[in-house]
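Please describe what follows:
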Amino acid sequence: MPQKIIHITPVFYPYMSGMSRACWMYASYLAKRGFDVSILTPSYDGKEKIENIQAVRVEYLRPYIKWGNGAFTPRILSRLQELCGEGCLVHLHLPFFGFQEIFALFLLAGGKKRLKCRIVVQFHHDPELSGLRKAIEKISYFFVKYLFEKADWILVSSIDYARESRWLGNFIEKYKTKIIEIPFAVDIDAYQKERKIDKSKEEIRFLFVGALDKAHNFKGIDVLIYALDNLFKKRAELRERLKVYVVGKGDLLAYYKDLSQKMELAENIEFLGFVSDDFLKELYTICDAFVFPSVNKAEAFGIAVLEAMAGGLPVICSRLPGVVSLVEEENLLFTPGDYIDLSQKIEIFMSNRNYYYNIGLKNRQKVVNRYNINLIIDKIIEKYYM
């Protein structure tokens, strides 16, 4: 039985992303179950440090080169060899450009026997790159294929997404006995059961949560802005009734603010920046719906969607593989990147708010039944031990 678990991730707190949140979800709850859990991750300020967070040891290691969410970090491999031993388990989060290539070469040279460990690969999503980075992706994919081969288990958040994946889709049959669907999860007890919605009020509040940096330009905030502009051109009277709260920060925040002002939407879109977990959960109780306008398969599941559902919100969502496994309400799904379709879904919601309020209640129950953190951790431990 693996008592020591080492997570390797390209991003971690304070950088907010779906991958960092998923890694922390696993690590923190496994630590609560008595496992010795460490996280190895690049230090993006270049300074090496060790932090102990809720019984999880987090080592931030200096990369030689960093770009976007990739980092050439041989130090992770050296620390991994120092930490690993009999019964250890390595949980690698992919994609991790700059380390996945090093680790594949290490395994090719017989490194798995030297580590004396089992290897779990958590495949989060396909990279969506362009230009020179696209060429780098093609080279890196050669090494990733070898990681899939050497892994004991390949975890995916959605088997539907895995089938559609450029990276993993061709291996579904070959590795069908070790590709396991284990969705992400939330602590349902951390979310209030009752919402503070006054269904008689005129104003309808929508919520978006996501990183607003170049690495997450697929989140589709610009699509949402164009959708509102299109909606108000058609239904000007809705301008007085609609409010969107945008939670998140990043180097594109100023661009999105400027775009909303140019379209005269500053009164309708409020950019809140980074907010505390407590304030975010309060937003779930006062907002009417969650909007998730991601545009491509760099979005594989949508932890933010899951959290909104735990808060009892209906979700207006892009029709993307993986994400649609969460959202079943057909009338709230729209074509990725299609701002006209999104504006129509927002209009449908505003015309039927009371109906969709009940959909939000069903969403919360769905999370209780399928995506509660303790249920998911039980499944992960079962795979670790098999």
Observations:
- The mean pLDDT is 90.
- The CA atoms of residues 209 and 247 lie 5 Å apart.
